[in-house]
Amino acid sequence: MSAKQRLAQVVGIATVGALSLGLTACSGDESGGDDLTTIGFVAVGPEGAWREANETNIQDTFTEEAGYELKYAPATNLDQKSQIDAFTSFVDEGVDVILLSATEATGWEDSLKRAQEAEIPVILLDRGIEPDDTDLYVTRIAPDNIEVSTAVADWAVSAFPDGANYFVLEGPAGVSVVNERNEGFDAVAGAQPSLVKVGAQTANWSTEEAKGVVETVLKSNGNDIQFIFAQNDEMGLGAVQAVQEAGLTPGVDVKIATIDGTKNALTALAAGELSFVAEYNPLFGETALDVVEKVLAGDEVESSIVVPSATFDSPEAAETALPDRKF
Amino acid sequence: MSESLPIVEMAGISISFPGVKALDEVGLRLFPGEVHTLMGENGAGKSTLIKALTGVYRIDEGEIRISGEPRLLGGTADAQHAGISTVYQEVNLCSNLTIGENVMLGHEVRGAAGINWRATHRAAGETLEKLGLGHLNPKQALATLPLAVQQLVAISRSMVAQCKVLILDEPTSSLDANEVEQLFTVIRSLRDQGVAILFVSHFLDQVYAISDRLTVLRNGRFEGEYRTHELDRAQLISKMIGKDVDALKSLDAKGARRVRSDAAPLYSAKGIGRKGAIEEIDIDLHRGEVVGLAGLLGSGRTELARLIYGADRPDTGEVTMNDEKAEITSPAKALARRIAFSSENRRDEGIIRDLSVRENLILAVQARRGWARPLPRREQDAIVEKYVSALGVRPADPERPIRLLSGGNQQKVLLGRWLATEPDILILDEPTRGIDIGAKAEIQEYVAGLADDGLSVLFISSEIEEVVRQSDRIVVLKDHRKIAELEGGQGVSAESIVNVIAEDGLGDPSADTAVREEVTT
Amino acid sequence: MSANAHGPFEALKGLVRRQYFWGIVAIALLLLVNLAKDPGYLAVSVGSSGNLVGNVIDILRAAAPIILISVGMCLVVATRGIDLSVGSVMVVAGAVSMEFLKGAPDTVGSGLAAIGLVVVVSAALGAVNGMLVSVVGLQPFISTLVIMLAGRGLAKVITGGQNTTATNEMFRWTANGHVLGLPAVFLLALLLAVAMGLLVRRSALGLMLEALGMDAKAARLAGVNRRALLFTVYILSGVLAGFAGVFATASVMTVDVSRTGYQLELDAILAVVIGGTSLAGGKFNITGAVIGAILIATLDKTVVFLGVSSSATPAFKAVVIVALCLLQSERVRRAFRKRRSAVAVRPAEREKVAA
Question: C219 and C334: one domain?
Answer without folding.
Answer: no
